[in-house]
Amino acid sequence: QVQLVESGGGLVQPGGSLRLSCATSGFTLDYYVIAWFRQAPGKEREAVSCITGNDGTTYYRDSVKGRFTISRDNAKNTVYLQMNSLKPEDTAVYYCAAGQVYTDYDGAYDYWGQGTQVTVSS
Length: 122
Hints:
The chain is mostly beta strands. 0% of the residues lie in helices and 50% in strands. The model has no long low-confidence stretch (mean pLDDT 96).
């Protein structure tokens, strides 16, 4: 069956870095868009970044542009989110999701991981 498993979250100081991984199975990564979403306490879930499966087109929300980089390794069925220059406002549970439409709308994604906590604090 389809599975997405996130890892790499944790506690980091402001200005630090983390790399999140989304290990996928049960489907062909080339044919899916993979997105990273995040949800902070009391806030709505928001799209952070996404990447297409065929040509690697990427999207970033404005607040993470220049700091976050999404990439994928189709041979390992894994998508990464490199997060640099982290800020306290990046604190959230981060989820990866798979779908077949290139969009920042969470309702378009069919499969979701369980999430990984990222906390940016001194």
